[in-house]
Amino acid sequence: MSEPILEINHLTTSFRIKDEHYAAVDDVSLTVNKNELLAIVGESGCGKSALAFSIMRLHNRAKIEGEIKFKGQNITEFSTSQLNALRGKDMGMIFQDPLTALNPLMMIGDQIGEILLIHNKTLSANKRKGRVIELLNKVGIPRAEHVYNQFPHELSGGMRQRVVIAMAIANNPELLIADEPTTALDVTIQSQILDLMKELKEESHAGVILITHDLGVVAEMADRVAVMYAGQIVEIADVYTLFENPLHPYTRSLLNSVPTANEEQSKLHVIQGVVPSLQNLPREGCRFSARIPWISESAHEKNPVLHEVSPGHFVRCTCYKDFHFPDGKKEDKHHVIS
Amino acid sequence: GGDKETSKESDGADKKTEEKEDGLFSVDDFKQVKTNEGEAIEGGNLNFGLVSDTAFEGTLNWNFYSGDPDAQILTWFDEGLLTWDENYVYTNDGAATYEPQEAVSEAVLATLPADQATEVAENGVTIKFQIKDNVNWHDGEPVTAEDWAFAHEVIANKDYDGPRYGSDFTNIVGAEAYHNGEADKISGIEVLDDKTLQITYIQSTPSLVTGSIWSYPLAKHIFGDMAVADISSSPEVREKPIGFGPFIVDSITPGEAVVLKKNPDYWRGEPKLDSVTIKVINPNVVVQSLEKGEVDLISSFNVDQYPDNADMANVEYLGKVDRAYTYIGFKLGTWDKEAGVVKPNPDAKMADVNLRKAMWHAVDNDAVGNEFYHGLRWNATTLVPPSHPEFHDDTNPGLTYDPEKAKQLLDEAGYKDVDGDGVREDKNGEPLVINFASMSGGDTAEPLAQYYIQSWAAVGLKVELLDGRLQEFNSFYERVGQNGDDDPAIDIYQGAWGVGIDVDPRGLYGRDAIYNFSRYASDKNDELMAKGVSKEAFDVEYRKEVYKEWQQFMVDEVPVFPTLYRSIIVPVNNRVLNYSIEEGWANLHELALTQEEALKAE
Amino acid sequence: MWKFTLRRIVTMIPQVLLLSIIVFVLAKMMPGDALTGMVDPNVDPNTIAEKREALGLNDPWYEQYTRWLGGVFQGDLGQSIHFKMPVSELVWQRIVNSFWLSAFTLVLTYLIAIPLGITSGRYNDSWADRLITGYTYVGFAMPIFIFALVMLWVFGFYLDLFPTGGSIQPGIEPGTFEYIMSKIYHMLLPALSMALITTVSTVQYLRSEIVDTKQKDFILTARAKGASETRVYNRHILRNSLLPIAAFLGYEITGLIGGSIFIENIFSYPGMGQLFLSSISLRDYSVVTSLVLLFGMLTIIGGLLSDIILSLVDPRIRIK
Amino acid sequence: MSFLEVNDLKVHFPIRGGFFGGTQGYVKAVDGVSFSIEKGKTYGLVGESGSGKTTTGRAIIGLNKITSGKVLFDGQEINDLHRASKDIRRDIQMIFQDPYSSLNPKKRVSDIIAEPLRNYEKLTKGEEQKRVQELIELVGLSPESSVKYPHEFSGGQRQRIGIARAIALKPKLIIADEPVSALDVSVQAQVLNFMQDIQKELGLTYLFISHDLGVIKHMCDEIGIMYKGRYVESGTKEDIFNNPQHIYTKRLVAAIPDINPRNRSQHLQFRQEVKKEYEQSFNKYFDSEGLAYQLQPVSNTHLVALPEKG
Amino acid sequence: METSKIELSNVEGDKNLNATKSPSGWKIIGREIVRDKLALFSLILLTVIIILVYGVSLFLNQEEIVTVDLFSIHEKPSETHILGTDYGGRDVFGQLIIGTRNSLSIGILVTVMTGVIGIIFGLVAGYFGGTIDNILMRILDFFMVLPFLMIVIVFVAIVPKYSILSFSLIMTAFLWMGIARLIRSKALQEKELDYVQASKTLGTSNLKIMFTQVLPNLSSLIIVTMTLNLAANIGLESGLSFLGFGFPESTPSLGTLVSYARNPQTLEFRWWVWVPASVLILVLMLSINNVGQALKRATDARQRRG
Ligand SMILES: Nc1ncnc2c1ncn2[C@@H]1O[C@H](COP(=O)(O)OP(=O)(O)OP(=O)(O)O)[C@@H](O)[C@H]1O
Ligand SMILES: Nc1ncnc2c1ncn2[C@@H]1O[C@H](COP(=O)(O)OP(=O)(O)OP(=O)(O)O)[C@@H](O)[C@H]1O
Ligand SMILES: [Mg+2]
Ligand SMILES: [Mg+2]
């Protein structure tokens, strides 16, 4: 059976804005198993990054409530030094923008070496360098010896992202969090990076959280998918179920709005309105209701909760039952095999 | 200063000068000799503050220096061979004695063409100088007649780069020929033996023995082999200067400080002090330095600061009348560069003597002296300051403050306010604006100038500051005509002269004096001034009469009018003994201290 | 980099040349000349006229300029008319003083700026930060001359803790320990007065640099690596924020030049600033010209130094 | 006669250096590109970052100086747009990538939209107002939008404002440089739909620049693929997606993520095969400098950059 | 990254959006100043000072104030002379008011003139770039090399007669470079933004783009810089006057009043001559700086307080 590496229970992360707290992540519960890739999708501003940062406890000013259990330990109660022992060793993180994620004034070798040094003070400098070169080779960087002494700005975007990945996997973490690791990259490079991540995951059996807004990437990579909207998970299911039987109106709308190279659609679906900003989140009711105004109010729950519609498939709010596209347009189900 | 009103004899016990009830002081209340209190200690170091806001130049040789700071330093380690008395007449108390000869030296006359020879024989004089035997340079070499002659030759040399060459030298037989390269020696100077020198002067005048003899030797054994042009920048002038004075230069921090140690071989006797430290101090910190006892003596003290600090406990103030006066001049002509003479212009704006008189009457210099200077400067009456008591005519009141008189004079002269705006027009009814040039610098310059302008306005004269502001030092002198290019925009100007130790005013008011900025000249003036330096003038009474007449003549003509006489105030730390500011005092070797540390004010 | 430096120096030449012409002409336009100050009834006016002619002060400016420039090319900045010594020698005497004063000020500037900047940047919005920011505000607004006057008054006179003028106590053997201590003692008050004011911009810069760097993504990366807070600060934030400060060094030099005029004037410290002011009033052209030129060159060199340091400490900036 | 014809277009940027800013070399951003667009069609320009897509578009509209080559619009040469007639300049308009920076934040929407009108048409205040309102309605914004400032709109709405501005002069050709890549998927859909709508309505021709093959496929009739300033392949949508000839095209197409998770292992395999092929046959498809060869026709719509036979 | 950052600032949220890029910049500035009590206080103080100084000086007669009165030299503050008199018997309070007015006027004049020159120079250089930029930058480099204080001192020694205007002109001649450089670098960035490109494609002329499109977007930056410059310029003017290279005493200035303190007598015994002026300089500079810093924070989202 799958062994959970991370369990999140009722996690709420709030930011203080003008003396009031606003929850960017609202009562999120999920589990990541060993050797499993969980994708988190959603539009910009849905709280995906906030969730990832909460897991790593990287926000220094956010209020975190709930439970984050990493290998059975509740790390919300950890001290900074306890956390530091975890970060970079048992948990690795890959950031979205590879240029800004690297210290511009430090050589690549030193930056990767640093993570080794922090968690293993006894490693000799020579061995460390050997290990760094090994890592560089592993993430597919040619001429690793040379790159070792280069500065971030001397590398291309794809190379930099590989360096960031090398850093994240340096200590063979059991949980890897990747926040939009390929958004800044060209398609060809994106596919290479994704393939690399997949490879690495299979090798290490780590649990992976992949944050993205690209449904194509999800379809290529994920084992399970959580769809986030306005700080909440609105649907969670394994990847096949989600793509073949999406239930939540938001999931369905998203899937319908993507032009894909494989599909021909004359008209794309448009989701009305925008993701509300943190201070304007509806305090109660279904948060998505504002963007599907043609669905009657009564279809929504007062306090929407996740319903398990089939084993492992959860959907928030009952409105999915009544949802239809406004123009009566037929819904494409993405199960056509090309 | 006999023209000052009351003067209270200060009794020896009370060192502090009493402030009068009206907040005024008088220079007569100051002593010139430091009161000695306490026992002298052996040796000790005296700190001398050289008050200057710039660094001293460091041309430390009497034959080359040009700034007062350097002279202040020089005084400590070198001196003239001749000293003078309170009337500025050379005495025989110095390192050399002098004796005018009955007749002009035959040997010198022999070098001259016949006509000149008779002239010199008639008007000239030969003076014989004898240097005392124990007068030695700091390096032990004796000061010789050769050295003295050498000084003359160097200064008269055409490569000489210092400022000394002038009438004192051209008055020596053969000096001009030597200067022009026509002779390889100054024929009028004869070295009779190691210690005896004889100089023949073309003109014998009373001025000769009141400061017109060059009395500073130049060590030939050191400078003899140098090119004349190189001497002033040689290390022997700048870094390790030599003299024969009471102290020897030990070290110099360029521009900042000089440390001197005593010269045990000093001809007057071994100095009592071990050493003297001369340090440049900024005028702004003088008082604090005195209070803290950082300096025992200072080179100059701004009288403005006296009233606030009169009760400083650790110093005694000495004071005397300064050889200087402030004046206001009227531009009455221009300078003829070609001829080198003043060219009076009878049509000048200020040509009317009544206008000038009225302007003198219009200003209340007593008030200025009292209010700005608390009595330490006072109303000036004539162009011979009371620092020369023999010649200053204290019966001459000058023109007194009398605005009504001023108005009357103006009315009579035709300067009337025709258009009724309160401002007088000139004789032709044209607007009259008088441009006034005054120098900046000095704390009171600006209000003083403003005060004069206001005073003149009070009698209806419109006077404006040239360019609306005070002239900076350099531009003032440039425009007022120190090169002979007088700025026509200037009508009147305010200046000050420090006068020489000789009373002869030709350098400032002579027809051929470029410093005669008012460009005034008249036959009567020429005549009077010539009389003052004639052979007859060796008779002091005669000379007094001449200058008395000249002083009155200047009051009548008013090419310039003096505004203020000045005093010198010198604070001295109480631990200093045997100090004096009397004219001709030269006993630095007698200076002593009562304790190692200077006294501080509480 | 040598090529870059060389090229910068070559490009300096026309600038400096133009500067020299401008300064020379300006200096000549000042009324009066170095001999004006010799107005003295005891000095024969003819002597002055002769000297004026001999010094070539009556020649047209361009002749004087070419003569002067010719000298400069032979390393001869001319002769100070007032001080009667070669300008180079004169300036050298003063430059040494100014150099030590500036160097000392710089050291103090950084000694003050770095701890304050770091404290204020690291703990921004804390009480310490507010205090430091308050200080920088006041320091920023305080004209240096007022501050220096007050410092002189309080520490020099009132408390009598420091000398109030000069660069050295007279009579000390150069080179001895005592000599050096005396020099430092004399520099302390002027240097401190200047440093306390000039440092504020560095404190402010350092603070905002740290506050900025703290929010950079690579700091998150460092935290995600498990780096301790100390490590994050020392290795990442401070290093990245301090390096640009190092590059300020060159510009600081430029700033010190301006300040030195006030400081040396108020503390009667015999340096170049004071020499400049007195040379202006003495109309000692060769000195004025040389000093302005020298300061101009220092400005350029300061800029160059900053660029070079920046390129050394920041691998992203490359100079060819 | 095509509507827009680009012939051997080259845009080289000098690399400046030295004190006097002397030219020390060139960046060949666009290096011999030729294509033509039919009236009313959408032509897609794809390629990875830095391949010269934007530069091509900007050169056509006159924002970049053309080094050599010819651009013919409606049969007229417009190499130097500044000298080209005013009519032509107003016939070509542009939509920018970044809806945030392409609108002047200090101007009201009405001023932004009216800017081209003020430059080209002498309208009275009232007429102008009317036109602006029409345009605002046309792009589906509420009438009161005209007095608002750009920051009060979402990305998609801003892009519509940009479009309204571009169509204000009733242009014939619109160059759209990555009009949706800055937008979220949902908003992207909105803009793409709208662009298609007005194309039909106004009979517009698009030069559509994007690096997203999905979007390109959705929008375009014909496609050109760029690589390092040159074309590697061009043809109809079908030619490119169903029958890619050049290894680079194949690689691009293979890199598009498949939205169907069931395909992923096959897709991965396919991708790896293509990658292998790419590595092996790189020299076959590119010259010694790693640049593409001249285009060779493989069918009458389909051109591929292959070395000349022989 | 670009994308997500900007997306965050959707509809209402201009939190992360650079305020210089939004018309409500003014509102933010206002808000920021009101929020920052110190800045608000400074602004009010400054306004009061300015109104007082310019207002009161209307009723003062400069001639009369600088009239020397021999019989009231160095009077202590009293009813007739609120702040006593100086060594010319002139009323210090009157001089303070007029001096502040003069110093402020010069400061403002210099700031405005340097601003105008700097803006035009910087805009032209930055907007056109290329050769024009190159040439202009070489000119600017040259001015940067000039040791400002020294050159101005030499200049002041030459100019025979100066007024507020000519003095300001001298200062301006050597002070415009800072703002020119700033504007240039911003203009270089700004012109690359699409809205400028868009205007070009829409047929707007360069001049019009420069002044009606680019310039307004640099306005908050300009305001901030000019505010801070104003303080610096007032400081410079008083510094020059202090050194004796400013105005003659008949045209009072704050620096001149402070410079009286160089007379140790005044420094020690007559605080009323120089302390008020010193304090006023400090207060002026502090308040202007406070306002400037608040403006800076307002335009720099990262530093904004709320
Ligand atoms: N430090 C913070 N302080 C205040 N609000 C924040 C902070 N970080 C994020 N937010 C807010 O929290 C919400 C969620 O932000 P988050 O960055 O998690 O979104 P996201 O889904 O990652 O979006 P993107 O795809 O753009 O990265 C947004 O409304 C954002 O404005
Ligand atoms: N003004 C310019 N000066 C110099 N080089 C330039 C300039 N503009 C573009 N380039 C260079 O030309 C090349 C092509 O750039 P271009 O912007 O056209 O690419 P692109 O395909 O649009 O890329 P992207 O997808 O990143 O927008 C790049 O290498 C770029 O660095
Ligand atoms: Mg995110
Ligand atoms: Mg592009």
Write structural notes for this entry.
The complex is a heteropentamer of chains A (338), B (602), C (320), D (310) and E (306). Chain A is α/β, with parallel strands linked by helices and 338 residues long. Helix content of chain A is 29%, strand content 24%. Chain A has a domain at 4-227: P-loop containing nucleotide triphosphate hydrolases (Rossmann fold). In chain A, strands 6-7-8-3-9-10-12-11 form an eight-stranded mixed sheet, sandwiched between helices. The longest helix of chain A is centred in the middle third of the chain and has 18 residues, at 187-204. Mean pLDDT of chain A is 86; it is low at 332-338. Chain B contains 19 helices and 21 strands. A six-stranded mixed sheet of chain B has the order 15-19-12-18-16-17, with helices on both faces. Chain B is globular, with a radius of gyration of 26 Å. With 310 residues, chain D is an alpha/beta fold. Chain D has a single domain (4-228), classed as 3-Layer(aba) Sandwich (Rossmann fold). In chain D, strands 6-7-8-3-9-10-12-11 form an eight-stranded mixed sheet, sandwiched between helices. Chain D is globular. Chain E has a single domain, classed as MetI-like (MetI-like fold), CATH 1.10.3720.10. Chain E has helices at 2-8, 25-35, 37-59, 62-65, 92-128, 130-145, 148-158, 164-173, 177-191, 194-201, 206-217, 219-243, 254-259, 264-269, 271-299. Chain E is elongated and about 75 Å long. At the B-E interface, α10, α13 and α15 of B face α14 of E. The complex binds adenosine-5'-triphosphate (2 copies) and magnesium ion (2 copies).
Q: Layout of SSEs?
A:
The complex is a heteropentamer of chains A (338), B (602), C (320), D (310) and E (306).
Chain B: E1 45-51, H1 68-77, E2 83-84, E3 90-91, E4 96-100, H2 106-110, H3 114-123, E5 125-131, H4 145-156, H5 167-170, H6 175-179, E6 189-193, E7 196-201, H7 220-223, H8 228-231, H9 235-238, E8 247-253, E9 257-262, E10 275-281, H10 286-291, E11 297-298, H11 306-309, E12 315-330, E13 333-336, E14 341-344, H12 353-362, H13 365-373, E15 377-379, H14 403-413, E16 433-438, H15 445-458, E17 462-465, H16 473-480, E18 492-498, H17 506-509, H18 523-532, H19 540-557, E19 560-573, E20 576-577, E21 592-593
Parallel strand pairs in B: 1-10, 1-11, 16-17, 16-18
Antiparallel strand pairs in B: 2-3, 4-5, 5-7, 6-7, 8-9, 9-10, 12-18, 12-19, 13-14, 15-19, 20-21
Helix pairs in contact in B: 12-14, 18-19
Chain C: H1 2-29, H2 45-54, H3 61-73, E1 79-80, E2 85-86, H4 87-122, H5 127-141, H6 144-158, H7 177-214, H8 217-224, H9 229-266, H10 272-282, H11 285-313
Antiparallel strand pairs in C: 1-2
Helix pairs in contact in C: 1-11, 4-5, 4-7, 4-9, 5-7, 6-7, 6-9, 7-9, 8-9, 9-10, 9-11, 10-11
Chain E: H1 2-8, H2 25-35, H3 37-59, H4 62-65, H5 92-128, H6 130-145, H7 148-158, H8 164-173, H9 177-191, H10 194-201, H11 206-217, H12 219-243, H13 254-259, H14 264-269, H15 271-299
